[in-house]
Design brief:
single chain, mainly alpha, 10 helices, Myeloid-associated differentiation marker-like protein 2, Marvel, transmembrane, repeat
């Protein structure tokens, strides 16, 4: 055993994990994340589903970032049966999306300029938490920028533009699902049910692609992974095109739905609002899949 340990050579600790630009970004992520949820938990406060979501984002991202720093600093990641490059790239993109969402939601629902009725101290804590939440998003975005694949570089799939877009596509699909379950009345027509099937199918396949990349199991597949992903992306573009036409027609055409928001619809509980959110993010995901397809012609991983 001693000979095996000696033959590996090199230092036991990887100082580059905390001194490189990416390492410094991760240390700042850990610092800003801990500061943000500590300010909220100590005095800022949170409530309802959106407050709980923000706290989950900050604590989840903090925990995974600590795990990544620890593994890279101690070389423990070499013992894991996953593709480490794909895992860190995928998490950085996911954390960027989650942190920017929390950085928007928390001040939107909890920050106010006046002291009444929460008191000046609580208000100041909430403002400070919002500032650090914004900084947290910036440093996660910085990691994505630093680790992204450069033109002509052979790298991990999740570090490429197409790989990063897969995370964004799945995240946007989650927003669509959230709006679907919020009384969107999608079961009213077979056509809108088809749209839900499109969103579900594309989400599942995208998650499977990410999972295979992160676990490093693509080499075990009996078909070429790279070519299959491109073919799937082309199919997803066609499917989302159909949903981008069908959903607005069956929700906003006067024959099937309502072209304008009903006046008696309660805020936060109006099917028309959910339908509008779904329509907007359907076009967002369609655009993402088109860009993904264009970039997939230029990458090698």
């Amino acid at each position: 055993t001693g000979k095996m340990m000696e033959s590996t050579g090199g230092p036991y600790l990887n100082t580059a994990a905390v001194t490189s630009p990416v390492g410094i970004a991760r240390l700042l992520q850990m610092t800003f994340g801990c500061t943000t949820f500590s300010l909220v938990a100590h005095q800022g406060g949170f409530s309802a589903a959106y407050g709980t979501f923000c706290m989950f984002v900050w604590t989840f991202c903090f925990a995974i970032t600590v795990f990544i720093i620890t593994c890279e600093f101690t070389h423990l990641h070499s013992c894991l049966t996953i593709s480490w490059g794909n895992f860190t790239a995928a998490f950085a993109m996911l954390a960027t999306l989650m942190s920017v969402t929390a950085a928007v939601i928390y001040p939107l629902y909890f920050v106010q300029l006046g002291c009444y009725p929460i008191g000046c101290e609580v208000r100041d804590f909430r403002i400070a938490a919002s500032v650090f939440a914004g900084l947290l998003f910036v440093v996660y975005a910085a990691e994505v920028f630093l680790t992204r694949a450069k033109p002509g570089q052979v790298t991990s799939y999740m570090a490429t533009v197409s790989g990063l877009l897969k995370i964004v596509q799945a995240f946007v699909a989650c927003i669509i699902f959230g709006a679907l379950v919020n009384d969107s009345q999608y079961s009213k027509y077979v056509a809108t049910q088809w749209c839900v099937a499109v969103y579900s199918f594309c989400f599942v396949v995208t998650v499977v692609v990410v999972a295979f990349s992160v676990t490093g199991k693509t080499a075990l597949l009996w078909f070429p992974f790279e070519r299959s992903v491109v073919i799937y992306t082309f199919g997803a573009v066609l499917l989302y095109m159909s949903a981008a036409v069908i959903w607005p027609v069956f929700c906003f055409d006067s024959k099937y739905g309502s072209p304008r928001r009903p006046g008696l619809c309660a805020k936060g509980k109006c099917p028309w609002d959910s339908q509008l959110v779904i329509a907007i993010f359907t076009y967002v995901n369609l655009l993402l899949y088109i860009v993904d397809l264009a970039y997939s012609q230029r990458i090698r991983f």
